[in-house]
Amino acid sequence: MIVTRFAPSPTGRLHIGHAASAIRAHDVAREAGGRFLLRIEDIDGTRSRAEFIAAIEADLRWLGLTWDGPVLRQSTRLDAYAQALDRLRGMGLLYPCFCTRAEIAASLSAPHGGPDGPVYPGTCRHLSAAEASARIAEPHCWRIDMAAAVARTGPLRWHDASAGDIPADPLAHGDVVLARKDAPASYHLAVTIDDAWQSVSDIVRGHDLFAATHVHRLLQALLGLPTPRYHHHPLLTDANGKRLAKRDGAPTLAALRDSGLDGAALAERLRTGRLPDGIATASA
Ligand code: GLU
Q1: Rounded to a whole number, what is the distance in angstroms from the first to the last CA of the chain?
Q2: Which residues of the chain have pLDDT under 70?
């Protein structure tokens, strides 16, 4: 059974890039007689807003998309994330990190860039157990000791429909955060657990999340979860080749709807690559 999902974070209104991604995920499932799921990634309590959740559903319906079963909200799944964190902690792979953003920035004399920005220099990995437990009442996140995790899993691979067979390279990300100071799980942990829990067979999402898949593949191996097939698609850009982003004023689906545009017609254009004026497909 082919199962796909669209998994937006309700931190703003959807734009045309989200629409293109949701349509692809929807169509991959529908063409195979499979299931298409909607999951709301709302673990970031400081940025997620209920009004955006309602808007996401309205926008998808306007495009003519339907989803199967109830909408899953990640905020209802905190016990599952806590259990996974306990398992990883039990394997000796997690450590508490007390560093502030400013401290991390200051300690990176020559910032070592990873696929998703600067790589954490590992400061708190070197704390003794006694030092860490003496500070545990201070605000902290939990990081994975990536070198230890990779030593445990050995080499891993994953498959992308366009890029082919990929050797996983989670080490390039360094000791990523799995539980945040302000949220009980990070994106990496929650997405990996929920894709497995919902039996998602094919992950259709933008190329901006290609590199994150290395981390997800590692977590699957550590937690004994299956590895889905991946379909990372090119992002949509503006006329200058800049990725569409709400903060840069990309037109929201709500604005397009209010301007009288027909949602089903827009979806058809996106399917056939007839992009609206001023919108292009990124080359990578
Ligand atoms: N929630 C993520 C986002 O809105 C996407 C998750 C995913 O497709 O893996 O960027």
Answers
A1: 30
A2: 109-111, 246-247, 284
